[in-house]
């Protein structure tokens, strides 16, 4: 993978961590950990699409489509 993919992965992980920490404060640490491991990546994809939508043009110009980024991110995120 390229440096652009890893930047995308780190940005999504930052969103996932922020969402999970906020949820952990609201409902407890177990809920935050559970969200981080399961559905947090979906919420971080939505947040990234809202706040950094223009960056997808950069990735597309580098040869990485949005679908390829998302699928590769899912594969890396759920590796044991």
Give a topology summary:
Layout: H1 3-27, H2 29-37, H3 40-51, H4 55-61, H5 66-77
Helix pairs in contact: 1-2, 1-3
Describe the structure.
Keywords: Membrane, Transmembrane, Transmembrane helix. The chain is mostly helical. It has one domain. The chain is 81% helix and 0% strand. It is built from five helices and no strands. The longest helix is centred in the N-terminal third of the chain and has 25 residues. It is elongated. The two termini are 19 Å apart.
Instruction: State the domain count.
Output: 1
**What is the strand tally?**
0
C-alpha geometry: elongated
Q: How far from one another are the termini?
A: 19 Å
Please name the defining characteristics of this protein:
81% helix, mainly alpha, elongated, 0% strand
Describe the structure concisely.
By secondary structure, the protein is mainly α.
